[in-house]
Structure to design on (252 residues):
């Protein structure tokens, strides 16, 4: 292994640098390279040590970002390890901690939210993390970043008036957040059906505050019926009539 650690091929040296048998001192001596922007997955040998607090402390201090990222994928970590990883210079380490670790701190989760709002594998993180802050989010009502303004309605102290305000926000992503809120007024729900952003219109179609008469009208048009039929406020008798109509059509 010592010879491979000094191999003329950078790719070989970089692979050796991730070998589980290396001490951190020997790992530091290897001239490895790593593209921090490439897609990364947890190293299996690090994952196998997730239940070992001593190993996690040792590996969380590694100079190699992929090893620290792999530690951050643990579901639970010692408090001192969490604190260190939450301040890691590699933001992907902090992202993985937000996605995977139940012990991730609230301030770091909020910081990650500023630039990440969920992936296909973890669509509810960081916002859906149990430690994500809820109280005090109204302070972001006037934040320059639309992503932060979206959070204001998660605050228990937010009101229907705040929903109405954000339903007129200049950013489509903020209006969409208001469009999904159950406190949205029926008038605003109807107004957002004509929003210039398709995602906002789609979300408004599903809001239970849509007046029944409007919902019935939307069921008559091919462009809107497919979404409107999923509105939770659709009366059960109407659902039965729709099913009967489909059954009758299919039997012809």
């Amino acid at each position: 292994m010592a010879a491979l650690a000094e191999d003329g091929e950078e790719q070989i040296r970089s692979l050796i640098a991730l070998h589980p048998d290396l001490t951190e001192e020997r790992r530091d001596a290897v001239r490895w390279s790593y593209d921090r922007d490439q897609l990364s997955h947890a190293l299996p040998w690090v994952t196998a040590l997730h239940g070992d607090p001593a190993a996690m402390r040792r590996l969380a201090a590694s100079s190699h970002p992929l090893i620290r990222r792999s530690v951050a994928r643990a579901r639970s970590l010692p408090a001192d390890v969490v604190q260190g990883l939450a301040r890691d210079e590699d933001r992907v380490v902090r992202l993985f901690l937000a996605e995977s670790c139940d012990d991730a701190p609230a301030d770091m989760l909020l910081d990650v939210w500023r630039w990440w709002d969920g992936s296909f594998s973890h669509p509810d993180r960081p916002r859906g993390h149990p430690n994500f802050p809820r109280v005090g989010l109204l302070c972001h009502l006037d934040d320059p970043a639309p992503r932060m303004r979206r959070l204001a309605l998660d605050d228990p102290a937010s009101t229907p008036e705040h929903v109405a305000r954000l339903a007129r926000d200049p950013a489509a992503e903020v209006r969409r957040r208001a469009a999904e809120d159950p406190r949205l007024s029926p008038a605003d729900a109807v107004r957002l059906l004509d929003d210039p952003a398709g995602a906002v219109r789609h979300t408004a179609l599903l809001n239970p505050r849509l007046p029944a008469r409007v919902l019935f009208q939307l069921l008559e048009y091919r462009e809107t019926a497919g979404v409107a039929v999923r509105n939770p406020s659709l009366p059960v008798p109407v659902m039965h009539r729709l099913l009967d109509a489909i059954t009758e059509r299919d039997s012809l």
Remarks:
- The first helix runs from residue 10 to 16.
